[in-house]
Amino acid sequence: MARAGGHTLTAFDHDLGELRSLIIDMGSVAEAAIAEAMRCLIERDEVAAAELIAADEQLDDLEAEAERRAVELIALRAPMADDLREVVAALKIAGVVERVGDYAKNIARRVRRLPEGAQLEPMSLLPEMAKIAASMVHDAIAAFVERNPDAARQVCARDDALDDFYESIFRTLVTFMMEDPQNISPSTTLLFVAKNLERIGDHATNISEMVYYAATGDRLLDGNINTRDG
Questions:
Q1: How far is 94 from 91, CA to CA, in rounded Å?
Q2: What whole-number distance in Å separates Cα of residue 106 and Cα of residue 101?
Q3: The pTM is what?
Q4: Would you call 2 helix, strand, or coil by DSSP?
Q5: Per-residue pLDDT, 94
């Protein structure tokens, strides 16, 4: 059975399935990195944090392999229309997920900068914020694999909750810094962590917008549909 562009259904679907599997693997690695970075921060585990930073090359390698397969798929199978959008989306998503891993690495780097015994109130909020960010990444990848535009829109809608977490943490930490200069260093560290988690949510939203476009041909911006006809 043939498709437009000369590639066979079986060959193209096989290659696309392998590309999807790579994206799934990248998402799993990124999710695990977020969770481990937060564990290291809460438990002040500097040894494990250093190991996590060193392990970041795994995502770099997966991204390179995903890019290679996507370019090869385009060159050899000449996909058209919906198929081409999906392959291009996979290519872009691989780069975004790699950056999510970089944010997890950045959080791990802050472990050694957090003073021992620092117990500022927002510390208790960060793990929940991290769970939301990681779940957004997970669900955005799942929406890509399932070609589910509705699921992609739902991920975008959850970004507001992550933004609310960040705003709350920001205001609280600024208050702490104003009340006691000794709080400036740990508060700055926690602000950095919260900002990285907020950026992970932004990237999950970016992935979801790519998924929506790949599945429908319409652009999803800030949760609103921007059709090709305007």
A1: 5
A2: 9
A3: 0.89
A4: strand
A5: 96
User: How far is residue 130's CA from residue 72's CA, in Å, rounded to a whole number?
Assistant: 35
Q: What is the mean pLDDT of residues 154-167?
A: 93
Q: Which candidate, 38, 13, 23, places its Cα nearest to that of 143?
A: 23
Render 141-180 in DSSP notation, one character per residue. HHHHHHT-HHHHHHHHHTHHHHHHHHHHHHHHHHHHHHH-
Rounded to the nearest 10°, the torsion over CA 97, 98, 103, 104 is 90
Greatest CA span in the chain, whole angstroms? 71
C-alpha pair distances (Å), 16 with each of 28, 70, 75, 143, 183: 18, 8, 13, 15, 51
pLDDT tens digit sequence for 114-155:
877 666 777 888 999 999 999 999 999 999 999 999 999 999
CA dihedral 191, 192, 195, 196 (to 10 degrees): -150
Tokens of 136: 């957004």
Tokens of 217: 């041909």
Domains present along the chain, CATH in parentheses: 9-226 (1.20.58.220)
